[in-house]
Amino acid sequence: MRPVSERLKILVANDDGIHAPGLKALAEALRMLGDVQVVAPLVEQSGVSHRITYLHPLIVKEVHNSDGSHYGWAVDGSPADSVKLGVLEFCEGKPDLIVSGINSGANVGINVLYSGTVAAAIEGALFGVTSIAVSLQQGAMPPDYQATALQAVALIRQIREVTRGESTLWSINFPETAPAPPRGVKLAAMGFRRHADTIEKRKDPRGRPYYWSGIDPLKNHALEPGTDVKELQDRYITLTPLHFDLTETRILRELDGHEWSLEP
After folding, report:
1. Which of 96, 74, 71 is nearest to 85 (CA)?
2. Measuring CA to CA, which residue among 106, 130, 133 is closest to residue 50?
3. What is the pLDDT of residue 92?
4. Fold of 8-191+224-254
5. Cα distance from N-terminal residue to C-terminal residue, the chain
6. H helices within 115-212, ranges in order?
7. CB count, 10 Å around CB of 105?
8. pLDDT for residue 217 is more than 60
9. Which of 164, 160, 163, 227 is CA-nearest to residue 193?
């Protein structure tokens, strides 16, 4: 791992699509830390989680800036596909850092499990690369992606410093853009309790029913102190370290040595 003072090789992805303003702002800000390669889905892939394409080929096209210079690679696939291709094909060697975002909307609580933004970071972590998902809660004011990107880079720099080169996985969430700045930064656990979940039923002009899911995911969560859901609600920027090992280690330890039988 390179020292944090050296310029890095950085892969940037997202789930909102390669033309998303949050992606552009983040890629520009990350150039303060190193050389940036953008590999992102061709179209929006919000909520696809860690979907991987393997039943048909992945089509990729180069995307250019208005002056004709290279901007990035657009992948007709998922966020995880984009990171996999970025690492194996377009970064010319393993990147030092992978950043996904800036997502249009928060990724806190159990929505972390559904998020394509977080899945892109998880895919990067599977390669043994420090990977960070960055999300911005949406509100009444237009989102300030440029300011958020600069603050995200400051936090990413510090994450690399405090982890001393260890490969880690993080989710950063910023409160919605507002006249007052965020109240500060808090290390927070992922909230996993929700007190409600709703499906909204509506009717089309011909009287046929249709359904909307996930209308207000933040309000569905229990606001437990110390969680990303609660701290974001209180207008703090949240830093949440994640891992992708889903093993329930408590049960694994409790049942260690148990003799299993195949007798009916």
Report:
1. 74
2. 133
3. 87
4. Stationary-phase Survival Protein Sure Homolog; Chain: A, (3.40.1210)
5. 53
6. 116-126, 145-163
7. 22
8. no
9. 227
Rounded to the nearest integer, the mean pLDDT of the chain is: 93
Rounded Cα–Cα distance for residues 13 and 72 (Å): 10
Calculated CA dihedral for residues 167, 157, 92, 87, nearest 10 degrees: 50
- Cα 29 to Cα 22, 147, 156, distances in angstroms: 11, 9, 11
Neighbours of 245 (CB within 10 A): 5
Per-residue confidence band for 195, with pLDDT thresholds at 50, 70 and 90: low
Which among 138, 139, 133, 158 has a CA at the least distance from the CA of 240? 133
Domain boundaries defined on the chain: 8-191+224-254
Mean pLDDT for the stretch of residues 175-190 = 97
Identify the CA nearest to 227 among candidates 139, 121, 112, 108: 108
Least confident of 24-38, 48-62, 174-188, 217-231: 217-231
Name the most confidently modeled range: 172-176, 219-223, 226-230: 172-176
pLDDT value of residue 192: 81
Q: Give residues with Cβ within 8 angstroms of 241, minimum separation 6.
A: 168, 169, 170, 187
Confidence (pLDDT) at 120: 98
CB crowding 125-162: b at 16 or more within 10 Å, else e: bbbebbbbbbbbbeeeeebbbbebbebbbebbeebbee
Phi, psi for 44 (deg, rounded to 5): -60, 135
- What distances in angstroms separate CA 177 from CA 136, 181, 187, 225, one per listed residue? 8, 8, 20, 23
